[in-house]
Amino acid sequence: MFEREVYIARRQELLRRMAGEKGVALFLGNVESPAQYGDNCYKWRQDSNWIYFFGIDEPRFAATVDLETGEETLYADDFGIDDIIWMGPMPSVRELADRAGVAKTAPCGALAAALKGRQVHFLPASRHYNQMLLAKLLGLAPEEVVSAGKAGCAKASEPLVRAVIGMRLVKEPREIAAIDAACDLGYEMHTIARRGIRPGRIEQEIVGEMEGLALSKGWGVSFATILTQHGEIFHCHSHELPVDPGRLMVVDAGVEANDHYASDFTRTYPTAGRFTSRQRDIYQTVYECNELAFSMTRPGVAYRDVHLAVAAHMLENLRDLDLVRGDLDGMVEDGIAGLFMPHGLGHNMGLDVHDMEDLGENLVGYDDDQVRSPQLGLGSLRMARVLQPGHVVTDEPGIYFIPALIGQWKREGTDGGRVNYAKLEDYYDFGGIRLEDDVLVTEGGARRLGRRRLPIAPDEVETIMQNDQL
Amino acid sequence: MFEREVYIARRQELLRRMAGEKGVALFLGNVESPAQYGDNCYKWRQDSNWIYFFGIDEPRFAATVDLETGEETLYADDFGIDDIIWMGPMPSVRELADRAGVAKTAPCGALAAALKGRQVHFLPASRHYNQMLLAKLLGLAPEEVVSAGKAGCAKASEPLVRAVIGMRLVKEPREIAAIDAACDLGYEMHTIARRGIRPGRIEQEIVGEMEGLALSKGWGVSFATILTQHGEIFHCHSHELPVDPGRLMVVDAGVEANDHYASDFTRTYPTAGRFTSRQRDIYQTVYECNELAFSMTRPGVAYRDVHLAVAAHMLENLRDLDLVRGDLDGMVEDGIAGLFMPHGLGHNMGLDVHDMEDLGENLVGYDDDQVRSPQLGLGSLRMARVLQPGHVVTDEPGIYFIPALIGQWKREGTDGGRVNYAKLEDYYDFGGIRLEDDVLVTEGGARRLGRRRLPIAPDEVETIMQNDQL
């Protein structure tokens, strides 16, 4: 936890942004989430909005902020002797309220009555338990309190959602320091991964070593580790293959630090330690796209335009390889890059690795005058906004050869004659390449987060992989 | 997955045990469980009953078994192109049904109609999502479909619960082989822990190394690792202390193998590498209790009686140390051992580390003619049944000095004058000791699971800790 003044100031700012609204803002912390039976739970993880406004890293807390009077109340129950035997001496609710700077406390059972007859501003719930609880408290169906992905949650309070996004989107200096520290752990974890890539080892062994580091020095991984020789599968969580020399290994992984700030990096390694010339061509293009995006990242630039510039550069290089043919501007406009990069250039990052995604992707990542594209690729862009100092975004271009998708475009003629399908067939066993850094938008431009950048230039990667073997 | 015949045979046996019942048995697999926002989930873990009867290790499956006709139907939806881009080519529902030996498949949306007007036998739900889903399908409140701990769930089908318990309680040879393998991984993980205990290291660093091994070679840990110098706190999940020479480190941890069978071992180490004489006295008693329990474990013996024999031996030794005074039988009867060991001797273990705990502790662990004790300690005994070949139980006596509990007994006179509180005060900074093995009940007696037993005798522990430092 930060010092109590941080949380007090954040809630004051929230009140200021909600000025004129009636009723109360309701915040729910998380409860433990069962993995198997009720007493065997997944590792405890607090709700990110709760962490931001209250900091208390314990289950079964809720709070209200009265938007009319400013009165704040923390709802939680103290522990009995049974809890102390099983969990040890715990700080009292009163002590925790003091650490969060909240004046008033009440038992959990008093929450329902406190909401009765009031207008309740709530945030969408991602955890299934909080969906049940919110639904019960507010007389709604559980599916009505859930964020529906891009669109968000219609019944949630848009003023509250907008106020929270406005605050969390621009990172405070203490948050930037925390993300830098998470990135340093991410660097360590990725170094373990790179050193672990040796022919014959099973992918799972390397994943375990990586996640062990994340657990030794942080909360754990900030999302399920992607380590795969099938880089063309974006969220491949199967790790049963032996390392096969000659393939490409995509490693997309991050650490969540003990204070819950995230990092998220991707590197792609030639499993043989050296790229084939075909691999190097594609790798060089992705590398150039990553560098191009970083060079364009500065206040006042829309990240959507950075995505489009990356798409153009990618298509230009793919045209040089005779994989696509035609006018560059037309290909960009028609979304041809989406065949090769069917995801967005990046997303916000902070307490969540996709920061605030549960509040609705469009509200988080799009300015009011921006409309989300329906195109494959650009349509998946999570962060399109005009950049401001304090934004933390990922820069993660990629090129993939996805047989099922290529087949679909070919059948349906989606490319309008621009794709050289005959040549693309040579790439069906290629896999994919993605290269991702975490970037802070500064007053003067941008800075890559973390003390050191993971090796990325093709020569640099080959050299360090040779050294890793020594 | 085992071969399909295994699942067919298990469901046939279930039908046999449910003969005469009307309606359908409903099984719900798990869905992914969000850690943060909906797309950032905890590591996928299937429901254990689902694994046992269907084996399919994928989310969003349900099934019905018609108890009148024997007809089986698998409910799930096939994947589209978007899923294939993000998750890769997936087997079809039809292919998965074949692997589970189920003849009929239907989309998820057809489940509600299939249940309409039928008597539905269901198992209690632990996952919050399945609580919502079951409640909706059956027209109940979510809290009505949850297991209420010891008592189980009143609305769930007792015939189905009893049939499942009857089957899962007695392990098949293939399950025993799986548990042996999980125990071998547990041995490796505990060896890493023991070697990691060196003054000055932070507990969390050791936990990360342990969990890394569990993830490298298995699904992960079978429950949140307990590694603490506050052994008197049973479920201490804080790992922020540096290793402090002179204390005792309780390490209670297990691996869940990739096939989801669990192991669960506890060892307690002197952080200095050698026991003090006070530590050795208590350790020796716990060690003797562990050995005594194993020596008594055989078919026909009630595990409740093994717990009581352990309590008697413990009190005898504590009396020799002048920590308690009085008649042994009377102390056992009055539950005085509960002050020192306020938990039970052991629990069943299998696909769940506390096997089937979500089905209701009393139904799982108690024979029909056994009544659960209200006493502290014995009342927490999860496995009291008369042992049968194929039972897998833990043998985990412990002695703890819990200041809050001792204070309560002293204030309330719970001990009836048997406890020497003056002397006990010397032990307030002692912590606790627990020693746990996993044991299979065999035709002729019992066998400790895993190829090798973790070092446990006091001299053996000191010797190996000296060798670890070399």
Describe this structure in words.
The structure is a homodimer of 470-residue chains. The model of chain A has no long low-confidence stretch (mean pLDDT 96). In chain A, 52% of the residues are buried. Chain A has 470 residues and is an alpha+beta fold. In chain A, helix 1 packs across helix 7 (158-169) and helix 8 packs antiparallel against helix 9. In chain A, 38% of the residues lie in helices and 12% in strands. The first copy, chain A, has a 5-stranded mixed sheet. The radius of gyration of chain A is 24 Å and the shape is globular. Chain A starts with a helix and ends with a helix.
The counted number of beta strands of chain A is 15
Count of helical stretches of chain A: 17
If you average the pLDDT of chain A, what whole number results? 96
- Helix- and strand-based class of chain A? alpha+beta
Provide a quick synopsis of the model.
The structure is a homodimer of 470-residue chains. With 470 residues, chain A is of the alpha+beta class. Chain A contains 17 helices and 15 strands.
Task: Give the SSE layout.
The structure is a homodimer of 470-residue chains.
Chain A: H1 4-17, E1 24-28, H2 48-53, E2 62-66, E3 72-75, H3 81-87, H4 93-100, E4 104-106, H5 111-115, E5 120-122, H6 128-138, H7 158-169, H8 173-196, H9 203-217, E6 220-221, E7 226-228, E8 248-253, E9 255-256, E10 265-270, H10 277-296, H11 303-320, H12 328-333, H13 337-340, H14 361-365, E11 392-395, E12 398-400, H15 403-412, H16 421-424, E13 432-434, E14 437-441, E15 446-448, H17 458-468
Parallel strand pairs in A: 1-5, 3-4
Antiparallel strand pairs in A: 1-2, 2-3, 6-9, 7-8, 8-10, 11-14, 12-13, 14-15
Helix pairs in contact in A: 1-7, 8-9, 10-11
